[in-house]
Amino acid sequence: MNISRRGLLAMSGATAALIASAKLQAAEKAAAATGLKEAYKDDFLIGAALSASIIKKQDPKLVALITKEFNSITPENCQKWGEIRNEDGSWKWEDSDAIINFGSKHNMHMVGHTLGWHSQIPESVFKNKDGSYISKEALAKKQQEHITTLVDRYKGKIAAWDVVNEAMGDDNKMRTSHWYNIMGDDFLVNAFNLAHETDPKAHLMYNDYNNEQEGKRNATIEMLKRLQKRNAPIHGLGMQAHVGLASDMKNFEDSIIAYSELGLRIHLTELDIDVLPSVWNLPVAEISTRFEYKPERDPYIKGLPKEIDEQLAKAYETLFKILIKHKDKVDRVTFWGVSDDASWLNGFPIPGRTNYPLLFDRNQQPKSAYFRLLDLKK
Ligand code: GLA
C-alpha cells in the first residue's frame, strides 16, 4: 500500500493526539485517585477553613475538590461572636449551620472557631451604655450563656473547639484585651470549663499566632502551666502557622516537642505561607494591623514567578517533613482557605494585593507545593 506523506503526517498527528489524551487521562486519574487526606491518612487530618459563601455557592467542582483533599473543616468567620450574634445578642445560626451541615453530610471532622477572642466582637459586650466597663460577674454571665449555647448546639458534631484565641500579646505578656482586663485568667479557665461541661467529649484547644517562635512559646507555656494548675481542661495546642517564605520552620519542631511535653495534642490550625514582600520585621498576624498599599509591595499581580512558586513548594516541604517526623504528636494540619483567590492574605496587612499562600491557585488548580506534599508520601 502506498501511504502518502500527507497520510503519514495525519496518522502521526492522530497518534500523538491519542498518546497525549491517554497521558492526560492517566494524570487526571492519578490526581483523582489520591488527595491529600488519603495520602496523609496515617499521619494526621488535613483540614481547610471554609467561608459560608463557599458553601452557599454549591459549586460542584469546588465541593469535589474540598471533599477529595480535606477531611476536616473549620468555619473561617461565621462562628465568631460578632458574626453569629446580632447587636442585641440574638443568634444568627444560618451560616454556621450551613457549614456544619456540609461537614456532617460529607462525614468530616469539624472544628469550632472560636469561643473566646478579643477581635470580631462588639465593644457593647464589654461596656455599659455610659461607656464604663461591665463587672466581672456580668461578663462571666455573658460568657457562660455564649459558650454553653454555641457548644450545645453542635454537641456531637463539632469534635474540637478553638476555645480561646490569641490571649498572649506580641510583647509576650497576657494580651490586655477587654476579656483579660475584666476577668484575668478566669477568662480562660472559665471558657475551658464551660466548653467541657457542655460537651465532655469535645477536644479543647488554645490557639494563637507566632506561638511557634521561642519568646511567645515560652510565655505561652507559662500561661498553659498556670491554667493546668487550676485544672482547666485543655487538650490541644493550636499553632495558627500564618508564616512567610522566610520563616524558620525549625521553630515548629521545637514547639511541637515543647507543647506536647505539657500533655497537649498539636494542631496547625490556620496554615498559609505569605509569598509577598514583608512590610514589618515580625510577621505579626494581629488582625487589626494595616499598612499602606504601594505597587512594589504587590509584585506578582500578573502571576506567580516560577522561582517563587518553587520557594513556596520548598517551604511547604520543609514544614511537612517536620510534621511527618512528629506525626505521633500532631493531630491535624488545617489550611486557612482552599485556593489563593479566597485567602485573607490578599487583604492583610495591606488591602488589595495578589497573594499566593495556599496549595491551589485562583482556578482551583494544584500548585507545585501541592504535588510536593503528595510526593513526600510516595
Ligand atoms: C486569626 C483568626 C482567624 C482569622 C485570621 C485571619 O488568625 O484566628 O479566625 O480571622 O486571623 O483571617
TrEMBL record:
Signal peptide (residue range): 1-26
Reaction equations catalysed: Endohydrolysis of (1->4)-beta-D-xylosidic linkages in xylans
Residue span, GH10 domain: 30-376
Keyword Hydrolase carried by entry: yes
Gene3D superfamilies registered for this protein in UniProt: Glycosidases
Stored InterPro entries: GH (IPR017853), GH10 (IPR044846), GH10_dom (IPR001000), TAT_signal (IPR006311)
Keyword Hydrolase belongs to the record: yes
GO MF term set: endo-1,4-beta-xylanase activity
Enzyme Commission number, as recorded: 3.2.1.8
Protein's UniProt name: Beta-xylanase
Naturally occurring in which organism (per UniProt): Cellvibrio fibrivorans
